[in-house]
Amino acid sequence: MADVRKLAVIGSGAAGCAAAWFLRQAGHHVTLYEKNEAPGGRIQTWQGETASINTGAVFFTNFYPLLWELLGETGLARRIMSCDKAVVLSDRQQRYAYNVASVRSFFGIPWLSMKEKLRVIRHTVGLLLRKTRFDLADPRQLARFDHQSIADYARQHLGDTIYHYLVRPAIEPYWYFSCEQASAALMMALQAEVPGVQFYTLRGGMEQIARALLKDVSVRFRTEVVDVRYMPDSRQVQLRLKDASETEVFDGVIVATQAHQAAALTASLDETLVSPEQRSFLAEQKYAACVTVWFRSGSISMGDCGFQLAPTGPGTHGLAAWTDLSQTESDSAAPNERIVGAWLRDALSRKLLDEPDDVVIRTAWQEARLFSPELPEQPAEAVHLVRRRCAIPIPEPGRYRRMVDFRQRQKPPVVFAGDYLATATVEGALRSGQTAAALFGI
Ligand SMILES: Cc1cc2nc3c(=O)[nH]c(=O)nc-3n(C[C@H](O)[C@H](O)[C@H](O)COP(=O)(O)OP(=O)(O)OC[C@H]3O[C@@H](n4cnc5c(N)ncnc54)[C@H](O)[C@@H]3O)c2cc1C
User: Sign of torsion, CA 59 62 66 67?
Assistant: First the structure.
């Protein structure tokens, strides 16, 4: 076993929780600081009177190996629930329930010609034959394919129609940014996984993952760290807390916040601890915004949005997705209560971040109506609303290569974790936490 050390983790999102879990398993003494009153960060679950709502991550796939392992070890495996309905694609005029794991369903897609479908299959088989691993959570495997945007890559290799009707709905409903902004490596990793993909969620909410991982960890909620300093004489790290006169001292720290927060927290460290390259990587990280409104549908028919309805086709879409909670959290909603969430894309979310609630609610409803025209003009009752300015780190072209460089430079006593060091998924965040913990000897 490694030397037992006194270590701190800042942030209780998936990355921080995984880091704390692995450090604890290795026998280290761990204190975790979280500025909010509850754990989870972007996997938090809002507990309403009659329903629990995942306000960030909703689902995971069979391609999240670390999450599956942790769900088994923490006893949460029994709460896994399969989301087995198709994703409904809508171009406003026409809808198609597309089961991404079914070849038959793929051949039924109405917007693509047979020639285009065969082109997609040839391209996917070509990727699989390369036998390259495309692990979404491992930037080392994606860095080789990181030279152009998804839009450029898809148009060049697959053509415009496939790009708009198949590629965009595979990315934009889940990450909120545009395919013009993101690296082609993300698309290739997804394309390689699609043939066998299956979606799941956790009955009772994704936040349980954070709670389970922190079970034996000393956690200080409502405690914001404002500064990380290094003390060369003792080779220890000092944390300064908001509204506290005392500082706290550790042998090392894992900063598991978002990138801009990590940059601010470590601003006073010299370049032997945080290199100029790492500093600019943190400062330059862009995030997509996401505003989400959940509606109680009562007797209103929401149309068949399956587990998720996603816009397809050319043009800018304000709606990212329309998710039916009864498909993903069925034991938490009261009988006859159907709650549907409208998730808005980055550009529209940005416009709404500072608008009053009634404007946000009306806009979200109108956007949903564009793709589900049977909805009435008057919005259903809104049960919850979340505005996130920094929802999803954008993996711009070149970003995966810079992640590899950043990760190679990581060394104790100050180490970083977070989804901006992988792809923004629960698995990516967990794996970044595991990798960070490994640097302290686990
Ligand atoms: C709307 C939305 C939907 C998503 N859907 C999915 C999905 O369906 N499936 C999927 O796999 N992924 C999804 N994701 C992505 C996934 O949720 C994230 O990638 C992941 O949860 C990020 O975890 P993290 O630990 O890196 O960051 P965070 O969860 O943001 O954690 C950072 C934590 O640090 C705390 N903190 C920050 N500063 C300080 C400080 N100074 N002192 C103390 N604490 C501090 C914050 O309060 C926060 O709790 C979604 C994300 C969003 C926003």
Answer: positive
Say how many Å lie between the CA of residue 254 and the centre of ligand 1: 15
53, β-bridge pairs: 46
pLDDT at residue 140 greater than cutoff 80: yes
* CB of 304 closer than 6 angstroms to any ligand 1 atom: no
| Cα separation, 37 vs 222, whole angstroms | 5
Structure tokens at 322: 């329309």
Ligand 1 within 6 A of CB of 186:
no
Q: Report the alpha-carbon distance of residue 433 to residue 373 in Å, rounded.
A: 43
Ligand 1, atom 14: nearest CA belongs to which residue? 57
Name all domains of the chain by residue range, CATH numbers in brackets.
6-46+206-285+395-438 (3.50.50.60), 100-199 (1.10.3110), 287-393 (3.90.660.20)
Map tokens 């025209």 to a residue: 373
Question: Distance between CA atoms of 297 and 147, rounded to whole angstroms?
Answer: 44
Q: What would the pLDDT profile of 328-386 be if each residue is shown by its tens digit?
A: 554 444 545 678 899 999 999 999 999 999 999 999 999 999 998 888 999 999 999 99
- What are the angstrom distances between the C-alpha of 125 and each of 47, 73, 107, 191, 371? 44, 35, 16, 10, 32
pLDDT tens per residue, range 406-422 = 999 999 999 999 999 99
pLDDT, position 41: 98
**Residue 3 Cα to ligand 1 middle (Å):** 30
DSSP 112: S
| CA nearest neighbour of 31 among 19, 41, 43 | 19
SS3 of residue 321 by DSSP:
strand
Q: Is the full-model pTM beyond 0.90?
A: yes
| DSSP character string of 186-224 | HHHHHHHHGGG--EEEETT-THHHHHHHTTTSEEETT--
30 - beta bridge partners?
7
Determine the pLDDT at residue 330.
46
**To which residue do tokens 């060394």 refer?**
411
281 lines ligand 1 (CB under 6 A): no
User: What's the gap in Å between 416 CA and the centre of ligand 1?
Assistant: 14
**Cα 424 to middle of ligand 1, angstroms:** 9
Please state the separation of Cα 48 from the chain's center in Å.
22
In angstroms, how far apart are the furthest CA atoms of the chain?
Answer: 70
Q: How far is the CA of 14 from the centre of ligand 1 (A)?
A: 7
